[in-house]
Amino acid sequence: MSLTESENIFAGLNEQGLNTILSAVFTARPRLLNYRTSPSVAAVPASASSWTALPTIAFPGVPGGIDYAVRFSVPRVDLFPQSQPLPPALNLAVGQFSLQTEVDLILLCSRSADREGSGKPVGVRLGVAATGQPVVQVTGPGTGTVSFDLLAVEIVDITPDPLESLVECLVLTLLRAVLSSVALPFESLRAGAFSLNLLRGPETEDDQLKLYGAAV
């Protein structure tokens, strides 16, 4: 779609560039992808700074609570039109993006009721496909951010179906929280002394994230 008469600035970010940004952000801040209650439940990556510390889940009769960990791989995004395969349950529409990642869900399974912190990590790695849409937050003339909201998640080959729905709900909630930590500012898009006053977008088409606006 071309510029209208009121628009004189176009900013586009292709999906390769977007994936490069996401990789750089999550590589520099692995704690945004890795969450645990204790090193006993998940030890890799080894650096404590690579993890976000979480409290245990309190439950009556469980001394110290339930230890667990959640670990995501760096997500990869595909902007409309679809070029990466998706499960049949998901459909990539105009203005949306799809996302692929893996998640490790791990529990510290204790064999003794009276030994706090003891046990063996038991986990599963799941392939995750999702669809979502970019969301813009304008905070003033020439200032704002573009973030990413998920609409649906699909994890295949989990049975029975109610268990699949439960796990998908959990992963959707967690992955939304992870993506909420990523916001792309557009106040840095400048033409000399001018910045972008967003009039249209963000739009996803031609494998790009597009913003249209006027100089202010």
Please estimate the helix content. 10-25%
How does the overall form come out from the CA principal axes?
Answer: elongated
Largest sheet: 8 strands, mixed
CATH class assignment: Alpha Beta
What do we call the CATH topology?
Bactericidal permeability-increasing protein, domain 1
> Which architecture name does CATH use?
Super Roll
DSSP strand tally: 12
Helix tally equals: 2
* Protein structure class: alpha+beta
Secondary-structure element order, N to C:
EHEEEEEEEHEEEE
List unreliable stretches of 5+ residues.
none
Descriptive account of the structure:
The protein is of the alpha+beta class and 216 residues long. The protein has one domain (9-215): Super Roll (Bactericidal permeability-increasing protein, domain 1). It is 15% helix and 42% strand. It has helices at residues 15-28, 161-179; strands at residues 9-14, 34-36, 52-53, 68-72, 76-79, 97-109, 120-140, 143-154, 184-185, 190-191, 194-205, 208-215. Strands 2, 3, 4, 5, 6, 7, 8 and 9 form an 8-stranded mixed sheet that branches. Strands 1-12-11-10 form a 4-stranded antiparallel sheet. The radius of gyration is 21 Å and the shape is elongated. The protein starts with 8 loop residues before the first strand and ends with a strand. The model has no long low-confidence stretch (mean pLDDT 86).
